[in-house]
Design brief:
Layout lengths: L4 E4 L2 E4 L1 E3 L4 H10 L8 E9 L5 E8 L4 E6 L5 H15 L4 H7 L7 H9 L11 E7 L4 H14 L3 E11 L2 E8 L3 H9 L10 E4 L8 H7 L1 E4 L3 H4 L10 E6 L3 E14 L11 H4 L3 H4 L10 E10 L18 E3 L3 H10 L8
Parallel strand pairs: 6-7, 7-8, 10-12
Antiparallel strand pairs: 1-2, 3-8, 4-5, 5-6, 8-9, 10-15, 11-14, 12-13, 13-14
Length: 349
């Protein structure tokens, strides 16, 4: 159970939990920022009418062109809302690519432009190959949690619950968010039936050269992400020994390496020679927001096996790239190209 305290000098003032009576505001907050519920995507419609005479609160699209159903609990019982969102999913799964384009007509811009603005690449030709569901509530009972976990973990149903709690103390209000299951894992289980198999390699990207100078990462053997936990938590996917290809925005792939150290705050990362990274490399992108676990920079160690300069970036038309800072490479043409370009031997697989 989440508890929240306001720090008042040396004393802690407990914040009182308030009933979740802000559904309209929360729906707007989620629609404006899907990362609040762990979804990387954009909204294609709100209050979407189904053929069953019901209305989906929010319908979104992720980077794979798949749909995400987002439904607030409102005054329904936890089990009723799970049944409702499953009913919506039975309708959404039948939507064709053309149907999705028609649903997105209410967007201010064409669907293809909205997708490119969000992900920086072209809209997939096939849409809605899979779908996910997120129930938003203040809490759900243990029985409902077991149902959601069972559907997701045992039957690969893309369902999750996100919790929004409002607290009040000293005339101020705070909103906390959490999720029952890791949304990326929920998504992976849901789409594995329609996705190409994983190549065994990870894609990592640090943005543009201006954001993360490649010379720094290359010389000191690391990869870093900063910003919201929605982005930095993606480093949790990487374990020692994992194989990664580094992609730089606007250029292409610059290196292949093996993970040598798992995620830690940049201020806590120590180089192999025993020197703290931020002492050897006192860069703003590593030290900004230090001490703030929600916004500071995090680092993983990388033994770069083969690298090239920014001016010699490896790429081709249609090569895999997206805005996720860490993800699995499933595009086999990209994997084959990168293995050849960076001389990845069979004994590294």
């Amino acid at each position: 159970m989440t508890r929240l305290f306001q720090i008042n000098g040396t004393n802690l003032m407990p914040a009182k939990r308030k009933p979740l009576d802000l559904e309209t505001k929360i729906e707007a907050w989620v629609a404006n920022d899907l990362t609040l519920i762990g979804v990387d995507g954009f909204v294609i419609g709100r209050q979407i009418a189904t053929d069953h005479g019901k209305f989906i609160d929010i319908l979104a699209m992720d980077e794979d062109g798949n749909l995400v159903i987002i439904e607030l609990k409102r005054d329904r019982s936890p089990r009723d809302i799970v049944a409702q969102v499953l009913d919506y999913a039975s309708w959404v799964r039948r939507l064709s690519t053309g149907d999705v384009h028609a649903l997105a007509m209410s967007l201010d811009v064409p669907l293809a432009k909205a997708y490119r603005d969000q992900f920086g690449t072209s809209l997939p030709q096939t849409l809605n190959a899979s779908h996910q569901m997120v129930v938003v509530a203040s809490e759900v009972d243990e029985g409902t949690k077991r149902i959601i976990e069972y559907l997701s973990e045992e039957h690969d149903v893309g369902i999750n619950a996100a919790f929004f709690n409002v607290f009040e103390a000293g005339g101020q209000e705070w909103l906390t968010t959490d999720a029952l299951l890791d949304q990326e894992e929920v998504k992976d289980r849901a789409v594995k039936k329609v996705q190409a198999p994983w190549s065994g390699y990870y894609y990592v990207t640090g943005g543009s050269e201006e954001d993360r100078p490649w010379a720094d990462l290359r010389e000191y053997g690391f990869f870093t992400v900063s910003g919201k936990q929605f982005f930095t938590k993606r480093l949790d996917q990487l374990s020692v020994g994992d194989k990664v290809f580094y992609y730089q925005k606007k250029n292409g792939y610059l290196g292949y390496g093996l993970i040598t150290a798992e995620k830690v705050a940049a201020t806590d990362y120590v180089l192999p020679d025993g020197q703290p990274l931020i002492d050897a490399l006192p860069r703003d992108y590593l030290t900004e927001n230090a001490g703030d676990p929600d916004n500071c920079a995090y680092v993983v160690g990388v033994d770069w096996q083969k690298t090239v300069s920014v001016n010699d970036a490896r790429t081709f038309s249609g090569i895999f790239s997206n805005q996720n800072v860490v993800c699995k490479i499933r595009h086999q043409e990209t994997a084959d190209f990168l293995k050849e370009q960076f001389g990845v031997r069979e004994d590294h697989q």
